[in-house]
Amino acid sequence: MFERNQKTIFVLDHTRYFSIASEEYISLDFLKGKPSGDGGGPGAAGNAAGSGGGSQFSKSLWTCACESSIEYCRVVWDLFPGKKHVRFIVSDTAAHIVNTWSPSTQNMSHVMNAMVMVGVPSRNVPTSSDYSVIHGLRAAIEALAEPTDEQLAAMADCGQEDLPRIPNKGRVICITSARDNTSMKSLEDIFNTVLVQQNALAAPPAKKGLAIDHCHLVILNIVPLGVESLVTNRSLLKISPLLDVEIHTVSAPDISYKLTHLILNHYDLASTTVTNIPMKEEQNANSSANYDVEILHSRRAHSITCGPDFSLPTSIKQGATYETVTLKWCTPRGCGSADLQPCLGQFLVTPVDVTSRPSSCLINFLLNGRSVLLEMPRKTGSKATSHMLSARGGEIFVHSLCITRSCMDEAPAITDGPGGRVPDYRTAELGQLIKMSRMVPLKVKDPSAPNLSRRLPRYFPLTTSSSILFHLQRQISWLPHFLHLLVKEDMDKQEEVRCQQHIHELYKSASRGDVLPFTHTNGARLKISKAKDQYRLLYRELEQLIQLNATTVHHKNLLESLQSLRAAYGDAPLKSEPGASLLRSYTESPLSPERLEPLSSGSGSGSNNSNSLLKASKRRMSSCGQRSLLDIISSAERSQSNKRLDFSGRLCTPLGQVAKLYPDFGNKEKDSLTTGANIAPNVKEESIRS
Amino acid sequence: MPTLIALDASLSMLRPVPGRNEHTYQSLAIKGIQHLLDNLTAAGKLEHLGLLSYSTTAELKVDFTRDYDQIRQAVKKVEPVDKACLMSMLKAVVSIMSPWGNQNILQVVVFTDCGLGFGNTSIISFLEAYADKETEPEFNFLKTLANYNLNFICLGLHGDHYFTRGLAVYQQLLDKVSLKGQLFMTKPAKNTDAVEGNPNPNPNPSHKSELGRTTVFELIERLCESSYKSSEVTLKCGSYFRMEAPVLLWPPTAPYEQKSLVFGREPTTRHIDQRIEVCGFLALSDIGSPATLSRHWVLPKVEREKTGGSRRSGSLPPAAKPPKLNLDVSNPNYELEKLETDIRDFYAKDPKDTEESGDDDVTIVLKPGPQTEQQKENLCVLLHGALKMENMAALVKVGDKWYGFIYAFTDGKKKSNLMLNILPPGTNVIPWVGDLELLGFPEDLAPGETASFPVRADRRSYSQSSVVWIRQASLQSDVQKVLRHAKKMPDKTQHFYKELNRIRRAALALGFVELLEALAMLLEKECAHLSLNGASNECTLQLQHAATELRKTSNRDIKSTIIPLQKVGASEAGSTAATAPAAAYMY
């Protein structure tokens, strides 16, 4: 959790020596590039004149140290944003803190801006003992003792409990220049002493900062090009239980290569070179040449893929001292191939050379949303796509893919499994719901927001053959809207009225004996028993649907009218035909009161609802046992009186206003009702409807 | 879970089992293998099996296949030859298993009489050679082997001294090399004293020994129970009871060892929940290819009922009842299930059967015979169809702060099935999807707020115009860019200054003041060169101005920017303009 690379501190020597040139010269001509054709003559003359003096220049040692250490943290922050921290301390007469462990200062722009303030070491100040890298090293040790946010959080988590102490390790990379081995030795000694002193401060009485468990000090002794150093290179050496030191002498222009090499071990990184990337030439756009781009990423991206018998092809780039894995670019096929590949791990990547043209071509290709599969040769001669590069959210990842044989190969098809041969799943309906329940990333989440269970319907038969309602909803135009109203969590009075009307419609068509428009029966007329069944089932299903969705008092009202309807329709274990016929005459009776309703302006309609609960329960009780004919008739009668609604126009009109009569004037069905006699013959009804 | 069955083909396997003259050790082993195949067939024939026979050398008889008949045939043809050499077999196993890599759980089932081998190929001499030389390359294969599950079906009698000694050495081998292994053996017979102290149990032919067909089958059952038990969970999608179904996850899910979130605590071993619930849906293109812990088929769980009952159901009404009988009145969903059954009956009725009175038992006789498993509706199939149609995946919660995706996976042969990808535990495991606990529905957004995938990260160095001049070529290309714009002034004046300031800022950050001077010189040269070629006045003026500004030490601070020379006036181009830079210079 708190590895050694969690904290890295660069200590940059800002003494006078660092203002000298690195002696690697850049000529102005080089900067200018090849002289263009038209300005050949005068340009060449100018160059010739300039070459005498001042036309070449060099980076200072400071610039070399600065740019290479910034490059180091570019890689770290690209690959481990917010996880691994790098600090800079500049040392001359005192230590200058460039940034802190705080996330707000752990980024490139902060460091670059702060470095502008630091500036070049002055050439004009006399050498004095005040100027030293020691100040910086002391400050670095203090910085190591400061906890990072993660460490603070972990300490807070541990609280008072008796848990192991938070580990606090770190690495200090010091870029300096020492005269000889003796001065290097004294540097080490001072560092070690300060480290011990710091830990003494952190010990119980003072408790100043975190104790430092271990520190890895990397000293880069830099010299201008061509200058021999008296300091000898030394690999990792244990100075004390607290301190390991290694010393590298490098000429200033090579310091970046050295750090790139070191960073691989510091952060357990690996290098991959994507080969054979086809790129259009600037000069002739018709042809394309192949380029290679080297990227860095966590070593696990390689190791996770390699089984015991798979090894990735490696090579060593010219001038480099580390191995890179060479994988071949595969020109991407379809877009969908990038989704849900069997991925073992995803790791951020960063190009080794971020500004080169091939790198930026590859980066832009990826950032534009395309993915690239990378191929490695197998021992058998075949190829395997072992990795994939893709960019998401502005970050580029390498995905390690599973290339071994998988037990998931040769899938069993779902159609061969249980339920695979059912033809009428409500796939399209579920598909709609899925689309409507597509998730988005939120900034904050209200815990009371409805979850998926509340979003999905409470009644959802899987197939159309197990439902009457959902079978019919394609055939009956008003049914989908009705169903939509019924499941509304915030049903209001007006919607209840609409629903009541629909229930009445059903009721009426049931009493007329209309055949519901099933597709299965091909429109063939059902026998009476069958015709009755269809409504019984329809009512039952409707009742279940409302019951599952009953959230408001309106739902309860609807449920009651439906239950009374069921009772009226004799949806009980009835077998006697005469009962049914008698019933029919009753079920048709509500037509007349409804017609009369506008005239008899009922005032106490509200009380109906309160009574109905009691009645409904009675009804249910009576509907289950053995019932006599009298019971049936009287219960039907009771339910009728219950069912009587207030004039719907009044229900829709705000209190105190005059209700409009016949708002639906012209509606065929309504018309037919008003003209119909008490017991309208079925045949007539049908002829009007058709 | 690819499984390699290894059959001991040493001559000792030909011994008759004491007290069971009808069996040899080999015939028992073959019966055991057949029983294992029977069990795996019943579980859906999903495992890949291979068969290996071994004596001095190991021979792969059947390569990994789901066609178990091949193994049934091949196992009969194994002929014992010489002595057993366990170590060479294990070495062969490693190379045979290697194509599976380390992402699969690999099983080895060894059927053996636990012979120890002879001479330098024996297990004992191996253990002697291995001691203190674990790191030698010749023992490398053991590290791979340690990832496999080794199951030994040990055929022998507890009264048999050679067998019990063999068991001890096998266990010692597992412990010393720290292999994941298990020895399956029969329980010692109760009346052990009858055999104990008698090194050769043969003299009691009348006494049935503890080893026989049934006991071997018991060993196989124990093996299947411990290693081939599929994970059974309930998949829930919404609140309707039909949208919840028992499913099998295959291959079985493995426990996950999770590091403690609080520092210093012991890691905890986690299993996925018994009920996994769909939280919402995401487009496959939004998910991409995140790292997954494991992948599993989501298969409908089949109620294994006796097949005999349903066949008779057509003729006898009582036999046709079972589908109705399982509608338990106490079931909370009784009403709904009954309704569904009735609706199905309603549809199933042939319109021609007009003579039926309606809803009594007679109709049941006439409806088509009981549905086969394939004809019973299943949530998995519906979900698969809808997800496939919409190209979406269901986000499922498999545990506390632990998620996965269910989606329709189609393989190269166009066979499609429902697949579950289990993500590593945690809520922030896919950077571009963001915190999984913070996913919600568009309705949950604050008014005016919009949200979409991917969740954007901070800009990385490669998505902003970084300046890195470690290679001279990149410095060169940056400078060239400025010069290119310089030539095209006044059209490109803004671009020129933008690039110029970018370079200047970077140079200041790196303390590269030498570059500023060099650039100023370059600009002056360019200016001279361009004026010779009759470039526009504006151009030379701006170049002169820029060069001057670059040299100013007062400009070497973070806030300052070089701004273009203000045009003095379009009319007074010539003489007045010439003084302008001078003025700027003096200032």
UniProtKB/TrEMBL annotation, chain A:
<comment type="similarity">
    <text>Belongs to the Integrator subunit 13 family.</text>
</comment>
<keyword id="KW-0963">Cytoplasm</keyword>
<keyword id="KW-0175">Coiled coil</keyword>
<dbReference type="Pfam" id="PF10221">
    <property type="entry name" value="Mat89Bb"/>
</dbReference>
<dbReference type="GO" id="GO:0007283">
    <property type="term" value="P:spermatogenesis"/>
</dbReference>
<dbReference type="GO" id="GO:0032039">
    <property type="term" value="C:integrator complex"/>
</dbReference>
<keyword id="KW-0221">Differentiation</keyword>
<dbReference type="GO" id="GO:0051301">
    <property type="term" value="P:cell division"/>
</dbReference>
<keyword id="KW-0469">Meiosis</keyword>
<keyword id="KW-0132">Cell division</keyword>
<comment type="subunit">
    <text>Belongs to the multiprotein complex Integrator, at least composed of IntS1, IntS2, IntS3, IntS4, omd/IntS5, IntS6, defl/IntS7, IntS8, IntS9, IntS10, IntS11, IntS12, asun/IntS13, IntS14 and IntS15. The core complex associates with protein phosphatase 2A subunits mts/PP2A and Pp2A-29B, to form the Integrator-PP2A (INTAC) complex.</text>
</comment>
<dbReference type="GO" id="GO:0051321">
    <property type="term" value="P:meiotic cell cycle"/>
</dbReference>
<dbReference type="GO" id="GO:0030154">
    <property type="term" value="P:cell differentiation"/>
</dbReference>
<feature type="compositionally biased region" description="Low complexity">
    <location>
        <begin position="599"/>
        <end position="614"/>
    </location>
</feature>
<dbReference type="GO" id="GO:0007346">
    <property type="term" value="P:regulation of mitotic cell cycle"/>
</dbReference>
<keyword id="KW-0744">Spermatogenesis</keyword>
<feature type="region of interest" description="Disordered">
    <location>
        <begin position="666"/>
        <end position="690"/>
    </location>
</feature>
<dbReference type="GO" id="GO:0048471">
    <property type="term" value="C:perinuclear region of cytoplasm"/>
</dbReference>
<protein>
    <recommendedName>
        <fullName>Protein asunder</fullName>
    </recommendedName>
</protein>
<dbReference type="GO" id="GO:0051642">
    <property type="term" value="P:centrosome localization"/>
</dbReference>
<keyword id="KW-0539">Nucleus</keyword>
<keyword id="KW-0131">Cell cycle</keyword>
Automatic annotation (TrEMBL), chain B:
<feature type="region of interest" description="Disordered">
    <location>
        <begin position="190"/>
        <end position="210"/>
    </location>
</feature>
<dbReference type="Pfam" id="PF13519">
    <property type="entry name" value="VWA_2"/>
</dbReference>
<dbReference type="InterPro" id="IPR046471">
    <property type="entry name" value="IntS14_C"/>
</dbReference>
<protein>
    <recommendedName>
        <fullName>Integrator complex subunit 14</fullName>
    </recommendedName>
</protein>
<feature type="domain" description="VWFA">
    <location>
        <begin position="3"/>
        <end position="113"/>
    </location>
</feature>
<dbReference type="Pfam" id="PF20504">
    <property type="entry name" value="IntS14_C"/>
</dbReference>
<dbReference type="InterPro" id="IPR039841">
    <property type="entry name" value="INTS14"/>
</dbReference>
<dbReference type="GO" id="GO:0032039">
    <property type="term" value="C:integrator complex"/>
</dbReference>
<dbReference type="Pfam" id="PF19435">
    <property type="entry name" value="IntS14_b-barrel"/>
</dbReference>
<dbReference type="GO" id="GO:0034472">
    <property type="term" value="P:snRNA 3'-end processing"/>
</dbReference>
<keyword id="KW-0539">Nucleus</keyword>
<feature type="domain" description="Integrator complex subunit 14 C-terminal">
    <location>
        <begin position="467"/>
        <end position="566"/>
    </location>
</feature>
<feature type="compositionally biased region" description="Low complexity">
    <location>
        <begin position="316"/>
        <end position="325"/>
    </location>
</feature>
<comment type="similarity">
    <text>Belongs to the Integrator subunit 14 family.</text>
</comment>
<dbReference type="InterPro" id="IPR036465">
    <property type="entry name" value="vWFA_dom_sf"/>
</dbReference>
<dbReference type="InterPro" id="IPR045814">
    <property type="entry name" value="IntS14_b-barrel"/>
</dbReference>
<feature type="domain" description="Integrator complex subunit 14 beta-barrel">
    <location>
        <begin position="371"/>
        <end position="426"/>
    </location>
</feature>
<feature type="region of interest" description="Disordered">
    <location>
        <begin position="304"/>
        <end position="327"/>
    </location>
</feature>
<feature type="domain" description="Integrator complex subunit 14 beta-barrel">
    <location>
        <begin position="228"/>
        <end position="308"/>
    </location>
</feature>
<dbReference type="InterPro" id="IPR002035">
    <property type="entry name" value="VWF_A"/>
</dbReference>
